[in-house]
Structures are given as C-alpha cells and as structure tokens.
Amino acid sequence: MAPVSPTVARWELVLRLRELREARGFDSATFARRVGFTPANWSHVEKGRRVLTSTTIGPVLQLLEVDREESAELLALLEASKQRGWWAKSSALIGPELQRLYGMEHGAQSIRSYDSLVVPGLLQTESYARALISADVMIRPVQVDQLVAIRMRRQERLRGADPVELTAVIGEATLLQQTGGPKVLRGQLERLAELIETHEHIEVRVIPFDAQAGATLGGSSFHLIDFAGERLPTFGWSEGAVFGGSVDDPDRVRDLGFAYLRALEQSLTRTETLALIRRNARL
For the domain bounded by 6-81, which CATH number is listed? Predict the structure, then answer.
C-alpha cells in the first residue's frame, strides 16, 4: 500500500464530512452554526484550510448521526491528518499549493502526467532539475540547492516496496530542448531509458513530431493523481509559465482525463519511445 499521507487523509476527511452533511440535507451555513462554527470557519474546514480537533469533531459526528464504524474511520483520518509530512517541513521554500501536490503524490497509487517540453519532476536527474530551477528568475540562487533536494526527495515514491505507478507523456521536443546543455540533456535521456528498461511501474511515452494531432494540447502541463481508497476522486493539478495549482472542479478534472487519453493515443508505444530516446541520447 501507498504510505499514509497527512494531506490525503485530510482531503478524504473533509470530502466525507461534506458528503455526509449534504446527504443529511444541511446547507453549509446552517450546519456551521449547529456545530459551533461560523459559516466562514466551517467553509475553511471543508476546503481543507482549517484542521478539526478531537474536541471540535465531536459535535460534527453527532449531528451527522455517524455510526460507530464510520465514526472510527473518520477519527482515524483526523489523527493521520495531524501528522507533518516532509513537504510541510519545507514550508519556507514551497507554498501551500505545492505542499498539497507533494502530499498527494506521497499518498498516491498512480500518477498520469503530460508535459510538452520538459521531463516531469519525478523523473528528472539532479543536473536537469538544477538547470530548470536555476533558470527561474523568481528563485534566488541561495534557494537552488534546497529546491533541488526537495525535487529529489519527491522521487522516493518511485522506489521502495510499493512504488507509485507513473505514466508520463511528453512531447518529442523534450528530447531535443537543450535544458542545461548537451551533457545534462544526454544524462537525462539516458536516465529515462534506464527507467523504462528496468522499472515496470514507470511508463514514458513520447508524442512524435509527426503525430497528426500531436499539438492539440499545446504547451500545457498537468498531472492526474489517483489513490487506492475507493472514496477518493482523482486529484488534478495544472500549471503554466508562472502559476501551478490544484484543479478542484470535478468537471475540469474529467476534461483533463479526456485530454490525457488523447495525448496517450498520439504517443509512441513503450518500445518505440525507448528507441527514440536512445537515438537522441547518442546525438
């Protein structure tokens, strides 16, 4: 099983509480007042911005008429949500949104990603990551080493007894873009080839230049994260040149799922992708 993630536990807790509230016919404001919260504070709870305590959750479970078995499950989620993941300890460097992404990755069963021009962070070599991070004008030079270390720490989920399953679709331009220069790029391509050859849970697929609908998604970048728990929906993340954030609208997450399928359909097979990466690594 995937490791326990406080971020995922908190997300499941608030989703289930909201579902129970709606099933019992309470609107948010009325429910908040009945359990001793202001409507604004309860809104923060349901959005995961405020954590319940062992004391404040009592009236919530009572008003929702939760049975003993489900109550125990929700209390266990509450306890798990109070822990601090490694990403939270880096809050001085990464904001709440990135902390949420890394927390979701940590507790994921599978991840689907699409990147048009760069290798996704979970597959980057240290040199490649350093080249990308150093090029960001918003990042101070003194922060580069720490941010590189964080990116490498994320990759621990690809290893171990129960690694996350990763399928990464990238554009062929990624294999040619001279990120960090020829030596850095060659090292990155060799790493990708090695991962494809030696790790069945890692899939890399390239959309070739001659794919007839290969430019459909343009320069976008997004990730779809799924979990073992049946109660949890897919978590979506999308980013652009200056902003990255979670996708909370279920319809938009669904649309990203369709976009990912279109990208996958345009990509080469695993064997073809490996051959193309190997050819480019020798250039």
Answer: 1.10.260.40
